[in-house]
């Protein structure tokens, strides 16, 4: 349970993933230190909604355009902070180089049978693929889908991490199963100030610590982009809004979270919609916000790449 500080790392482990991961090979944008240490959190009240076995299961009053964002849940109520059940969020994948499929270095999400969304900084020039269907390290072996092409946003900037988004086109389609499914894309561009975004992960609970055996989950509220830009001067800009920030004094993304989905359960659909992609933050610290790529801003870019590779392919909202 999340009775104390929990630092998530969304590094998915395949069955042959080393128990003690060498994090020295994984230094990246999520460990950035050039932030304003004097930043003061804005007076914002988080709209906390206690987790429920009904979330993402029963349909909401407004249907989604196709099957997406559905959680695998038991019939009992659960409280935020417990390890989640097997493949409770079936759209999460591990991103790995195709020549080392059982060593994911980033997270990602399934947005179509042929396409996986992740962060641009997860790509280092090597062909990427997605490991799907993971839950427990040492059990529930995943299937690796190699990618044909990784699309990096044309304006991605490694210095200030703007436009940190990538789309992987897979060689073979991902088949929907009870343990594998799509996440919904956003229905609108609501900035969601004060709303809690869901983070899930198998990763370290402290900087350079060991990964957890099974995934855990937590919710972190969105802070206004204007406040976040004061914490990350020169890194975050409120206009146009290409990023979304989250902050809590008790929990934050950590190493390996990069590229993973940041979702919001829309009460009108009762489905999980992806509003963010984990991009960067302080070194597993909770002093200032972590920064995610803001998915609504990039919807036209995402859809154009999907249609260029699989004409007529549907996405769900």
TrEMBL record:
SUPFAM superfamilies to which the protein is assigned, alphabetical: Trypsin-like serine proteases
Span of domain Peptidase S1: 78-307
CDD domains in UniProt: Tryp_SPc
Signal peptide: 1-18
InterPro entries for this protein: Peptidase_S1_PA, Peptidase_S1_PA_chymotrypsin, Peptidase_S1A, Ser/Thr_Proteases_Immune/Dev, Trypsin_dom, TRYPSIN_HIS, TRYPSIN_SER
Molecular function via GO: serine-type endopeptidase activity
PANTHER family: TRYPTASE-RELATED
Protein name stated in the entry: Venom S1 protease 5
